[in-house]
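To whoever is covering the structure queue this week,

Two jobs came back overnight. Logging them here so there's a record in the thread.

Job A:
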Amino acid sequence: MNFHVIKEDDLFYLSDVQGMSARESENVSGSGLFTRDTRLLSRLNWVTKPDSLVMLESESKEGYEYHYLYTNRPPVQAGDIPRESILVTRSQTVDGHVFKESGIIHNYSGSPIEMAISYEIDADFADMFEVRGFAAPFEREVHVDVQGNVCSYSYTARDGRKMKTDVEILAGDFVCSWTPLRDTAMQCEFTLCVPAHGHVVWALVARPSIDDTSRANSQSFSSENVSGSKGVHLDVHRSYEEWFSRMPRVAGDDRFAAWYTQGLKDIRMLLTDFGYGRFLVAGVPWYAVPFGRDSLIAARQMMMAAPDIARGTLATLAHFQGKEVNPRRDEQPGKILHELRDGELSRTDVLPFSPYFGSIDSTPLFLVVLADYFQWSGDRAFVREMLPAVKRAFEWIEHYGDRDGDGFVEYWCESDGGIANQGWKDSGDSVMDVHGQLATGPIALAEVQAYVHKAYTNWARIFDLFGDDAESIRCFNRAHELQQAFLHHFYDPGKNLLALALDGGKKPLLVASSNMGQVLWSDILPLEIGMSIAKRMLEPDLFSGYGIRTLSAEEVSYNPLSYHNGSVWPHDTSLILAGMQKYGGWALAEPIVSGLLMAQDGFAQRRLPELFCGFAIDEVEKPVPYPVSCSPQAWAAAVPVFVLEQMLGMEPDAPSGRMTLHPHLPREIDRLTIEDICVGQGKFSVTLYRADDEVQASVLANTTGLTIDVLTSMKGVMSKA
């Protein structure tokens, strides 16, 4: 990964691997300080004189901080600082309101030294779509004002929103010297005198504000608190500690525990709250905003660790649920959004993303995740509160989602600035026929029909529990009708294949893809067909050894380096894993778990990225990174939590007061203890272990209010209240 990113709430800083941005005159990397989908600091370059420093290490313990350590090279002339006699540490942190770079110079030599430090800064207030190169740059009139050690950038957007970034240098009693560079860029210089065997500190603080109301807290910054990663960011540090104190703990296998812990760190980094409860943005750096599909899937993956994320995600998306027919935004009443942007181009309707609804699967996934949340929590009050949104979502499925009345939900982009392909594989070349020809719409994707079936099936039961017999029967009947139609139009028994989709002419696109694996996550397939498809997913053209390829290596359009036509997406593989276990049992699911474990071995910090290339395990020593993959990405970070759920074989039924465990372990793991798993009205702890060639489970504690049934093949059912 050739970039670093730190984030807290809606503020994040993207930099190169030395914590700097725009070292050249143009910022071609897209780096900078961002909030509200806007770049409020576009340049941050740090330079020292003498230029004798070499970086020793960079490290990040938590998602809101990065640390950079330097020492000095050997002297080149008399009087230079003796080699390796100083240690310089730059610590960058964000707390959701303020970006801070704290510096400290330790002088281990016997003589005092002087070091001149300069910062080059700039702010362009660019929209995220401009930064990414997806929109022509706006001409903006940015004002610069210097007062003492503070340089202020201000800009009024075309819709009247006022934005400002104050950059303050704190370096003891020294007064900074500001020099204009190109355009609005400024340079600040100051000199620090470091006594023998002593140290000095400095800091740069950037405070972005929107609409003339500062988002920073009112703390003052002084020489006493300019160094270190805590200080003004102590609240963030404590919130991380509180977050991990509430998460399930894993012990017994260091490899899995490290992967799991890194996933939790990244999930904590990606949390945001718009006032309706915590939810996960899709990923950094480019997708640090609410996404319907991504946020919902990640919330579902995290259910056993943090069901409150599902609740916050559902409440947030319900608030923004579609209200009108608006082709510009691909919006219809009841539809769940695709993404919500707050940059200038979206706010002024240059782009249709405030919000944009071009996602065919967000609405059924909303229903699926809400139903699963109820199964896990038994939270009747929240579900009852969501019922109006539920009924609007079903109305959208039946009236707007099914455009031609054939019983399938299909998409067609109506927006002139929208997304052509509106499933999770949303690149322009991701839906094709066996000859590699791109399909024309409207398009009915296989996995979307499975999501809809899952929604109908689950809600038939929930409506029954809530006493709505008519709606329960209607959902049951709709699920049955959809299943019959799906098997007739999508399933090819001769090829043992589920079509990727139906095109606009209702022709099945019979290419082998991961989409048919995601169908297994629902109950739309009869057992025999589901088992057959599950086995098909493990054939070497689809299973790379690290995960499931998005497209079979035998297809004309296969490209292991592509975004969606042969790459491996960890979240995709994890959903297929859940379906494989349902239809094929652990014997078919275990190779996928082992593959994911080997995949995470190949990435720094055991952080699975958004996607990686689809080369087979016998072609490469480790997974090959995709060049512009987001990392961390929410639904990739949540994979180890979801894998753990599959190993436990959890089937909670909180409304009925029971839960079943079907424990399994991959061959690489002999024992695993998981404490404080969230379900029902409390938590439970359990140890999985091997005994007589079978995996057993011992429930250690249970405050869930549920009776836990542990099911094993040899010893039947054992209950633990």
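Job B:
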Amino acid sequence: MRDVYTPIPLLRGAYGAFMMPRSIKWEIQYSLMLEAIRKRTAGLVVKIFLGILILSFAVWGIGDTVSSFSKVTEVATVGNMEIPPEQLSNEMQRQMNRFSRSFGDQLDMEQARALGLVDITLGAIINNALFTLGADSLGVSISDAVVTDEIRKNPEFNGPLGSFDRIIFQQVLRNNSFSENDFIEKVRQNMKRGQFLGIVTSSGLAPLAMAEVLYRHRQEKRIAEIVLFTDSAMSGISAPREAELEKFHKDNAAQFTAPEYRDLTFITLTTGELAKEIAVPDDEIKQLYESRLNEFNTPERRQLQQIVAPDEETAKKAHKKLIDGDAFAKVAKEIVGLEAETLDIGLVTRDQILSELAGAAFDLPKNGFSKPIESPLGWHLLRVAKIEEGRQKTLDEARDKLSAELAKEKAVDSLFEMANQLEDELGGGATLEEAAKQMNLKVVKAEGVNSSGKNAEGKPVEVLPAANSFLKVAFDTPQNTDSQLTEAGSDAYFILRVDKVVPPTLKPLKTIMDEVKKAWKAVKRAEASKKAAEEALKLVQGGKNFTAFVAKKGLKIKQIAPFTRAMKNSPKNLPPMLAAELFTLKVGEYAVSRGPKGHYLARLKEIKEADPGADKEGVDKIRQELTDSIRNDLMTQLAGALRQRYPVTVNKRAVDQLF
């Protein structure tokens, strides 16, 4: 059996040879592709989920078997290893909690499914199982002592004194829905997989020559001169004939077609609305308050400073200086050599500091200092810089919060009961209106709603529910038909009827004549600016002096500051297609490209080559990117190879039933 620090032999023979990229050109293309992806994943939400996705690689993987079982015993199998529903459910809850803590809004299951979080989470679990099996096949094991040491070294579990704090450790585990045994086992498995994957993650950096080539490619800069032939400056466009407008209207029908509109009738059931109707008895509020007294107790906190001396004699010497009236920071500097900024422990409660210090710390008055106190860390002198008194919220102060919580709990129970009752009413032949009257529910009507939730004037229809799935259901349901009772997150249901469907309709030309004329003129002006730019291109390519030609036309040449392929430092109005084309030209060559306001004629004036030797930090960054790309590629190949050895089966029905 191998311990965590025992080297593992190369995996080449066990899982097949890894195909390393063989050409620098391929690496450039690959790196540029990754760069493009990163640009499109700059949002915080995407970054969070990309972090999860890196763990899952291809989610369920190519070639995984998707099957359906009537009995939910596992959501997937990896080789002989079964992944139980509880494991996926618990991990999903952790991921949703992390998301909610990051953004402050509760992420419900409907949103999680829409974000693909179920597939991503299951994919990560599957790949972890594959790597665990791979580690087991090589006899990798992690001892209890090594796991304990790894946990104690984690700075997330450190207390105010900078060392492992069991209270904080347990709090972090509770916040992330882990039992202590589950977390210890998770750390053990993570370390085992880390050791197994060490051959990939600990491999050397990508070749320096490769990084330098990519650096030159990325950091090469171009300087160009551009002239804009604006659409608005194009003159001589005659008024359109009626036949031209009719043809333009017909040829561009999509531009002038009104979307489909629907008239809807619907009922919503929400815990928020139900909770408003629920009166919570005082005795239940009082009982809940008494069961959660600690939650409403704000403990006393104290801002502490400390001097830690190596021995009792030094501590007594420092204590005498304090008695003589010397400042705490001065004594710390002169006697122990501690800087003033290192003395502050922070605002702490009694249970957040060492038990040996707690009594003295919380008995001292403000600005008071203690006698020398011994602890396992040395001899301490404490000073109280600030006191925040503790207090207990009264029942009246906590009443509104507790009442709202109890009402919501009761509303959740009522929600399911009412949903079942509503289905029974409708199943018995009642209309939405009849069922609503029987159950004292509100029926809402919305007329002329398009698939974006807007009316014919382009304004949002305010009465529609906030559920993401509402509009999809509304536009999937046939006319004069009730939809299914649909869950909207974890605290709402809705059901709707489509009363009327107005299909997409081409607006009559007579009703939008001005709109069509404006669009026609815009097209003609764009065609004219293109023609002007292309005629200018022919002239300058034929030998006409660029500067003199532009001056004669009364136009202005604008010089573009040096920019890279990533458009760094380039003007915001420089069209990306033009910028890309400029990197295909030689100095002195021209190009024409469309922009937001017209057509550009551009001349490449200068190429500024990049010097890798002058930017070691930049080259090192690219080298690390290439290294990460290669490692990720290797890990993906390893996961694929492991799937051949340990077949993966996904129980799709079980996953769907679970979520």
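Note for Job B: Residues 263-281+400-503 form one domain.

Please reply-all if you pick these up so we don't duplicate work.
Q.
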